[in-house]
Please model this.
Amino acid sequence: MSTTEEKQQVTLTIDDQDITVPTGTTILQAARKVGIHIPTLCYHDDLCVSGACRLCIVEIEGQYRLQASCAYPVTQPIVVHTHSQKVRKARRHILELLVSEHVGECYACKCNNNCELQSLAAEYGIDVYRFGHDDKPRYEIDRSGPIVRDMNKCIMCGRCVRACNDIQNIGAIEILNRGHKNKVGTFENIPLVSTVCINCGQCVTHCPTGALVERDDTEAVWKAIEDPQKHVVIQTAPAPRAAIGECFGLEPGHPVTFQLNTALHMCGFDKVFDTNFTADLTIIEEGTELLLRLYKALVKKDPKAALPQFTSCSPGWVKFIESFYPEYLPNMSSAKSPQQMFGALIKTYYATINHIDPKDIVSVSLMPCSAKKFECDRPEMRSSGYKDVDYALTTRELGKMISSMGIDLPHLQKSDFDDPFGTATGSGVIFGATGGVMESALRTVIELVTGKKVESLFEHADIKPVRGLEGVRYAELPIAEVGPVPELIKHLIPNWDWLKGATLKVAICHGTGNARKVMDDIKMGGKFSQCHFIEFMACPGGCLGGGGQPIPVNDEIRKARANAIYSEDHAYSIRKSHENPVISLLYHEFLTDGPCGHKSHELLHTHYISRKDN
Model:
């Protein structure tokens, strides 16, 4: 080791263990490297360090004061005690103070048995209210939107504020006032639904208590199931299926897709469908729209062919651009999300072929995202003549519904999805991971344009340049050869000659904090303004890191869920959306004027609105 490298390392002693780490490593990070547990509340792997709660305090020999281990970088050899009598007593007092300010009964809390404060109180034996306990609520509960705020349960750790401001760059909530009057709130205490909140739910997944939860729609769904006059169907998205096992004790990365089908029938749903079916449909519609825009821009020289085209399947991202960059709404794909396409088909095509009155159908979705609740409530999402999707359930909500039935999900027998929406492809599955929509679209666009199998360019059809957890990714794909235009869209685009020798430029972005960087770059005419297609997802990691997924979540958990999704993709016999035989049948029987045709635009496409002045 060189002298320079030696200077970059430092050895410290934690609980009689010598540990060598890079200079600047915090005591908390060093302790975790050797399996020493230090309790935390305000700390989260995703967030910047604040050192606010002081629960992670440790004793350093030679120092009078206890130090917050999350915020103490090691620059020289020190001796640390993480569980001395002085430390344990101080932590207990901190917890007792937090509990005294935390209003609410645990058994009536949605986070009961999954609350960090509750777990730590049990760990440190907090069984009396040493500093008293105010059991009268001080704040009115905000139930104005998909995210419910009960600030009576807030412990002022600031994790929600940092998630909203630092990760998502939204700023819907902030810490107000000082001293004993401080609280987490909105500007002028207006309801959350009236702010710039995009309903992504990252504040919920980062909250250590029950101060922030999603709106609970389970009772409404149970009521529908128990109504003999209602035909209740549910569609399940890939990201929840890769994560719901965590609600039943499985380690992250264990999909339970087909066991879940069995559980949903046991719960009373009449039909269980696969959202991946309309993910495939989204690719056909959105991919055709992209090719049409390219044709209009490059051949017809139409200045209104807004490029780059942005994906539109993430409702948090949609509300973000409506609120902060409405001048770029023409760049949004008009294709609805898979959830909403499914809802429109259920109330039209499915109702017709099964001779069911649409008013008697209750359409439910299982989604990884609290923003999906907002999306299905949008007035634009009624193209069927009815509300396309009646209720969107988060992964956490459905996990509790299944548990309340006494169902042991991981040990159920597997069963298939129901027809006619049970046939999907691997391309639909990978929608759940950041880069998945882009990869699915490229698998189809490459084959449609070149006439060659995507496997000739990418091994096993895995387009790895668009995968990963980097916040923003960029890729270029040269088009050396072109083939014949498929019959389905030949009336829209006569040939591909104009694409020969071109280079398709694409980008992938997840987390709206990163989205802001990309959008600002586009406004300044930077690299991303030269792209043809950009995938945006509101949540870190994409849908698998959505605000309705099991808690906790961090990058390791996101990676495990992504691995589960990509493994499922490989298990499918058909892995490209345009090869789905039931999609072809749908166009033949129902959407007879083809992708981006009149019928498709009526049911499967929509528009968005500026919210900048709202």
Residues 1-5 have pLDDT under 50 and may be disordered. The chain has 20 helices and 17 strands.
